[in-house]
Amino acid sequence: MATFENITTERLEPGIAVVRIDRPKALNALNAKTILELQLELSDLAKDSTVRVVILTGAGDKSFIAGADITEMKDLTPGEGVIFSQAGHEVAKLLETMPKPTIAAVNGFALGGGTEMALACDFILASDRAVFGQPEVALGIIPGFGGCFRLARAVGWPKAKYLIYSGARIKADEAMEMGLCAKVFPAEQFWDEVVKVAQTIARQSSSAVTKAKQLMVEFSETTGLHYKIDGEAHSFGRLIGSGDQREGMTAFVEKRAAKFEGI
Ligand code: CAA
């Protein structure tokens, strides 16, 4: 089994794999290396017949994934931006289409790429301390890991537009009301409840669960999405290198408010 720098995988009975993003100092933000590690690990788990359910979560109790790594994105070129977005799409596609259920266990901040990776899973279980949002416009960019489509699919176009244009952060109860989460559990019991859900699924007929997932992927037009989504990667790349992107990300790193000029 491969060992990685930024993710760990724990096995629980019966047939549950828990993949944890493990960069707590950066609130589990996704840099290029972590995205690559996720791609490798999820590809292996997709093929592993001993695994019936995959849980994606974040290390520590503060954050699921606080988005793509702003420090790393800050100085990307537009071409590198396209490649970065496409790599995130590959991870999202694996979560969405692997022939076994994927559960996002959102234990804290799920912002930007964090909400997007959670949305790519089959469903989201959230702690009552979870916070969701797509704050990319505050950084001079757009969601780059499929958010413009998957958020709308989950909550409907008007609410997705509200969240993406405003960058608003919402708490678990509001996310539940909007249809983003399947369940919200109190933080103290969160992990036990997540494992119970995964165990219940893992004890069902895996061939029946896999067939249900395959059909729902087809009915939700996900296959069409995978053809269209490259447009998002190119739009994301075009914004990388713009004045507003450099200003937005520099302001985040310098811990100050951004001054945008719309260029
Ligand atoms: N990238 C890189 N580093 C990050 C990060 C990110 N997305 N989010 C947090 N961190 C780092 C902070 O820089 C800080 O590092 P230092 O201790 O070295 O200063 C550390 O994690 C702790 O963060 P804060 O001190 O900011 O913690 P807080 O509790 O005050 O705030 C927070 C938490 C609200 C999540 C805040 O960190 C935040 O707003 N993070 C950015 C969220 C964001 O904008 N995400 C979207 C990224 S863009 C994206 O994801 C694009 C895409 O679709 C592909």
Q: Can you put this structure into words, describing what you see?
A:
The chain has 263 residues and is an alpha/beta fold. It contains twelve helices and ten strands. 49% of the residues lie in helices and 16% in strands. A hairpin with a 3-residue loop joins strand 1 and strand 2 (16-21). Helix 1 runs parallel beside helix 3 (78-97) and helix 3 packs antiparallel against helix 11 (230-239). The longest helix is centred in the N-terminal third of the chain and has 20 residues, at 78-97. The model has no long low-confidence stretch (mean pLDDT 95). Acetoacetyl-coenzyme A is lined by residues 26-27, 29, 66-71, 88, 109, 111-113, 116, 135-136, 139, 143-145, 147.
| Uncertain stretches | none
The gyration radius over C-alpha positions equals 17 Å
Number of DSSP E strands: 10
* Amino- and carboxy-terminal Cα gap: 47 Å
Helix segment count?
A: 12
The percentage of residues in β strands lies in: 15-25%
Strand-and-helix sequence, N→C? EEHEEHHEEHEEHHEHEHHHHH
The CATH homology group name of the domain at 7-189: 2-enoyl-CoA Hydratase, Chain A, domain 1
Bound molecules: acetoacetyl-coenzyme A
Structural class: alpha/beta
Shape: globular
CATH topology-level fold name of the domain at 7-189: 2-enoyl-CoA Hydratase, Chain A, domain 1
